[in-house]
From TrEMBL:
Keywords, sorted A to Z: CBS domain
Keyword Signal: no
Name of this protein: Predicted transcriptional regulator containing CBS domains
Lineage, highest ranks first: Bacteria, Bacillati, Bacillota, Bacilli, Bacillales
Matching PANTHER family: CBS DOMAIN-CONTAINING PROTEIN (PTHR43080:SF2), CBS DOMAIN-CONTAINING PROTEIN CBSX3, MITOCHONDRIAL (PTHR43080)
Species whose genome carries this gene: Mesobacillus persicus
SMART domains associated with the record: CBS (SM00116)
């Protein structure tokens, strides 16, 4: 049976897009305390199907699919630019397709403005009105207001008109940054994207026996199964090792491995891969917030997903991408004598103008990874990194990074890394990696 929290989430999910939601309303409708209603609304906001706006309230918005994650709703735009909604609140749930900066004559501006757009413009009332009539929302910069007739039109057309105290350039930058961040999130593959759902897998219950395990094995040709209680909560895992030597009537509950490792749907595939490799796990149960089984992922699923990610073009560039793209390799006579050079750019420094600790870590890890790949084809997972010291390195300094393999085996590698600037040792670290074969 679903918990009160889950019932409230389901109730919110079934509300019409654009409907306003309040704690008091939810508490009354679901006969729960306001505290319980508040927690459920916050959870719904985290899951992306409601949005809370200051001075407006909480509204039901359309939950985005993975492929549309980079599109923002007007409700999200209000929060991004610290805006005030002047009119058209009924359209806050709508999604903007692109934004247009109105730094031109009115006639030219309208040629670029259409349905689903957001016109970013100053205190130009005629532009506000014509944009609304063209099907676009309006963001007024500089903290300006607009005419009452324009606000009334926005309400009639259900197209938001928003005012922000920021200037046009700042507002456009903020929105662009938000879209860019969403693009990076889109690149991150989550467990929920690759799991095999519960209705397509076999699992056992605590009151079943070894005999049921054999039946499940015969039907699925698998030997590892999650074990759940009567509420479908994961309480164990049972494999062929567990049932070895036991008779057919032995209850699964007595021989299963209790408190198995599990992952949530929002866990990244990369994190799951790390967990599975280090713990030697072939199958991981996937659970919801209440620890109820929703599916499984296998090591093969994870490795396939990681290989697919590597073949996809990057849509959003991360800081790590920016840093590592500047590494230039200097080939040595032997494959373990390669070194790497890099110039310290302003983006790579901290508030006092020297190379940041995080950037140094990224450079060390990338140099060690590239060297290890010369020995082992496949994927690498960092087990641990020890940084012995890091001296201040100024902007525009040229770094020479010299990784040296200490040990390399079938499943692990250990690399010592020294970093020089003008011939002086400025940093030293050691990294241990797990090596994963591609299947």
């Amino acid at each position: 049976m679903a918990t009160k929290h889950e019932q409230i989430l389901q109730y919110i999910d079934e509300l019409p897009i654009g409907e306003k939601i309040s704690v008091r309303q939810i508490a009354k409708a679901m006969n729960v305390s306001e505290g319980t209603a508040y927690r459920a609304i916050k959870d719904a906001e985290n899951k992306g199907y409601v949005s809370t706006i200051e001075r407006v309230g909480t509204i039901r918005i359309e939950k985005k699919k993975k492929e549309n994650i980079e599109k923002l709703t007007f409700a999200e735009v209000v929060n991004i630019v610290d805006g005030q909604v002047l009119g058209g609140r009924g359209g806050l749930h709508k999604t903007l397709n692109k934004f247009v900066i109105g730094a031109m004559k009115l006639e030219a501006m309208m040629r670029y403005t259409g349905a689903g757009n957001l016109l970013i413009v100053g205190n130009r009332d005629k532009a506000h009105e014509q944009a609304l009539r063209a099907g676009a929302a309006v963001l007024i910069t500089g903290g300006f207001d607009t005419e009452e007739s324009v606000k009334k039109l926005a309400d009639e057309l259900q197209l938001p008109i928003i005012s922000s105290s920021y200037d046009t350039f700042t507002v456009a930058t903020m929105i662009n940054r938000a879209i860019y961040d969403q693009l990076i999130k889109k690149e991150i593959v989550l467990v929920e994207d690759i799991l095999t759902p519960i209705d397509e897998i076999a699992y056992l219950k605590t009151d079943q026996t070894v005999s049921d395990w054999y039946k499940a094995k015969e039907e699925t040709m698998h030997s590892r199964f999650p074990v759940v209680d009567r509420n479908l909560k994961v309480v164990g895992m049972v494999t062929s090792k567990d049932i070895m030597g036991d008779n057919l009537a032995t209850p699964i509950e007595k021989i299963m491995t209790k408190q198995p490792m599990t992952v949530g749907g929002k866990t990244s595939v990369a994190s799951s891969a790390h967990m599975m490799v280090w713990e030697g796990i072939e199958v991981l149960p996937v659970v919801d917030d209440s620890n109820r089984l929703i599916g499984i992922i296998s090591r093969q699923d994870v490795l396939k997903a990681l290989q697919m990610i590597q073949r996809q073009p990057q849509v959003g560039e991360t800081l790590d991408d920016t840093v590592t793209s500047q590494l230039i390799v200097s080939r040595g006579k032997l494959k373990d004598e390669d070194s790497f050079r890099c110039t310290v750019s302003p983006q790579m420094t901290n508030h006092i103008g020297t190379i940041s600790y995080g950037v140094f870590t990224t450079l060390v890890a990338e140099a060690a990874n590239r060297l290890l790949r010369g020995y082992k084809k496949g994927d690498l997972v960092v087990e641990n990194m020890t940084i012995y010291f890091l001296k201040p390195v100024q902007i525009d300094s040229i770094l020479e990074i010299q990784p040296k393999i200490l040990e390399v085996g079938r499943k692990f590698g250990k690399v010592d890394v020294e970093v020089f600037s003008d011939g002086i040792l400025v940093g030293k670290a050691m990294m241990v990696c797990q090596l994963i074969d591609r299947q």
